[in-house]
Amino acid sequence: MTRVEVAIVGAGFAGLGMAMALRRSGRESFVILERAASVGGTWRDNTYPGVACDVPSHLYGFAAHPHPGWSGVYARGDEIHRYLQDVAEREHLGDRLRLHTPMLSARWSDGRWLVETGGATPGLIEADALVLACGRLTEPEVPDIAGLEGFAGPLFHSARWDHTVDMAGARVAVVGTGASAIQLVPELARVADHVTLFQRTPAWIVPRDARPYADAERDLFATHPEALDRLRAELYTEGEARFASRSGDAEASVRATRIALDHLHAQVADPQLRAALTPDYAFGCKRVLLSDDFYPAVASDRVTLEPSALAEVDGRTLVAADGGRHEADVLVLATGFASTRQPYAPLIRGEDGVTLDEHWSEGMTSFGSTVVSGFPNLFVLNGPNASLGHNSSVLMVEEQAAYAVRALAARDAVGGVLRVDPAAEEAYTDEIARAAASTPWITGGCRNWYVDERSGRLTLLWPGTVDAFRSRLARTDGSEFLGADARRDARVHDGSVRDGKLHDGAVAPDEGEERP
């Protein structure tokens, strides 16, 4: 049995960020469990053609590890993977990493976590605290489609790309029009004989305005770090400003909608195709996508848009919900991930023997988007209400890791065990619900991956700016934990919630929140 203070599960941005925060606070007794062969998380797993980030590259990284060498305004997936590998090396995390080592289970027992591992390093780890940094978009969602498994050709999910399949000259079908699909469809259209795209719901798409950085720009960033600092600050401010259009501010939404429609009209001449690509729900209700080449690809003679869902598979014949029939040699599922029901949740058993999945049976809940009642000394990064739709999710991870380190430092005040007050978790959950109630995520007339269908609650997104989240966690006083001497029974309402919304720099009384 291995004994450590902290066991971290996952070696993507969240896991590495947590390890860095622990080390900077002077804590060296930790281990990082990673089921795959390297660090990198989603940027290791997603290798489909055209994969890239839709957050500007100089904002999508750790504050302590600026990277002047990004190839362009938006980084490719392989670049981000290499960046995370480099961070792990520069932070000397090699001896703390256990690769090819999945967490099989974790249970709270006698004041510590017992973590069972498999793979290359099977055994038991005893840890005072457990950090789940498993990501929220890790397990592909495979739709229930009649005959799917009998498709007479290569079939795979975009997040598990099969590079042995030659797309040249093939008839390729893609199911889905989300963030992955709009990146890979233009790439496939360049090599395949033809692409058929099944669209259940069109997306709001705005210009990406991507461009490579010139050598002179990269040299400037490398030799004048203050210039890179200024750029990061500008990108952060621009990101925070986008919150208004995503969250339903009337004026900002009108402007953003017009930009998206102008983009569509400029790139798609056929009025019938334009109509099929025009969303009928509020801007921001679903994830807003960025692309300069998706519309031209769909408008070309190399792509056929099927404006309905894939309903049935019969050999190589794909039958659409509207009755259309299409032949395909290769079938790619760009159908998203199991986001609202996290795949790690059934593996975690808390103080009363209840699993995290059972605790979250009506949707994920937490206090501070990080800690959960009934699960002592447990921290969940990138979990409940910790995603963003307007700015860099790495910023959220860094704030959560800092909060976890502060909580660990205060453990002595609560007898060495951090037990979340159920009332604090309930109040935080209610506050999130009130803040989200009038936003497009709830009222916009779409189905999105931010909302749990079991409860209708917003469980993925933080319904505020990064500034508001940072302020909220910075001003916690320990009263969220049972046994603390802080003001658990006399919380002060300080006016941070007005008109049902979280306001920048404000902290709601009992509550406390996307992806690249």
Automatic annotation (TrEMBL):
Residues 492-516 are annotated as: Disordered. InterPro entries: FAD-bind_Monooxygenase_sf, FAD/NAD-bd_sf. It comes from the Bacteria. Pfam families: Pyr_redox_3. Gene3D superfamilies: FAD/NAD(P)-binding domain. Residues 492-504 have a biased composition (Basic and acidic residues). PANTHER family: FAD_NAD(P)-BINDING DOMAIN-CONTAINING PROTEIN-RELATED, L-ORNITHINE N(5)-MONOOXYGENASE-RELATED. This is NAD(P)/FAD-dependent oxidoreductase.
